[in-house]
Write a structure and sequence with these properties.
alpha+beta, five-stranded mixed beta sheet, 2 helices, 22% helix
Amino acid sequence: MAHVRQQVRERAGTILTGLSLTGSNVFESRLYPLIDADLPCILITTDGEEIIESTISGVVQRSILLNIAIKDKLTTDLDDRIDAISIEVETAIANDTSAILRHSALVDVEIELDPEGDQPIGTAKLLYRVQAFTAPNDPETLI
């Protein structure tokens, strides 16, 4: 098995792969520059985690920050395209019934222009807070 953070990234990658506007251009923890063929795409990272350990019940509550970055080429309808992909992403996550993303909530959205790549790229960053519960000695198994 894997740490719950990895499980969160992988589950998001699974449910977001194959969306009509981004297809298979879904990358978990992508580290190299994007090229035109990669766009539009979704980049998935876990950007941190708040830990609350209950001494009474022996349960660790993990509040994992799941960052889903939607990237697309700069065009005249960039905002509309990013919003359309956002609809697909938000719907897919909200409709997921898996245990790993069951307790997730969209908490922030940032939209910006990036100068990376062959041409400017527009980005929408959707930040989700995912609640997961584990035993203190087992960060791989949800309880």
